[in-house]
User: Fold this.
Amino acid sequence: QSVLTQPPSVSAAPGQKVTISCSGSSSDIGNNYVSWYQQLPGTAPKLLIYDDNKRPSGIPDRFSGSKSGTSATLGITGLQTGDEADYYCGTWDGSLTAGVFGGGTKLTVL
Amino acid sequence: QVQLVQSGSELKNPGASVKVSCKASGYMFIGPSINWLRQAPGQGLEWMGWINTNTGNPTYAQGFTGRFVFSLDTSVSTAYLQISSLEAEDTAVYYCARDLHYIRFDPWGQGTLVTVSS
Assistant:
């Protein structure tokens, strides 16, 4: 049982837009920055978004992050088949004094 | 370039121990913490804890105390994860990751598969 809640799967057609939600509480998302990670099949996770909405260098602007209250959202526009992956949100939980993650969302580009 | 390179896959018998290494290059090792995460087969990411590269002080998440030990050798810019008394439930891919600021993990090691089976 993950501390953060993500939908198990989302899907959309190539070229379309998709959003992935991440729900938490005041002890985690509500008071700490959120990061998002992309895990392509058989590879290690890669940082996609940090500090709620910032992109590391090299990450295309098709990927965006936002946060409101105790929920965060990852947006991906102009979907490509290469975007098929598992996506995870993560943050710090001040009550648990631990890093916490969502269960992951599998993106299928139909 | 900045990277973390982990040691190779391990197959261990129940009750044995394993030590996974994570060698950093391309940046100053002392400073950002090294975190360890576990991903069981077909499952999500689980945060195991972190080690302070300035002091060598480890912090373990709940569920990862006792049999799990984080350590460093700063002379070779390497972090280690040792797991003792291995159980079948320890079968997983273990990742190290540099933490730039509270779960901002970049980069990650490529992962080390530890399989516990007789």
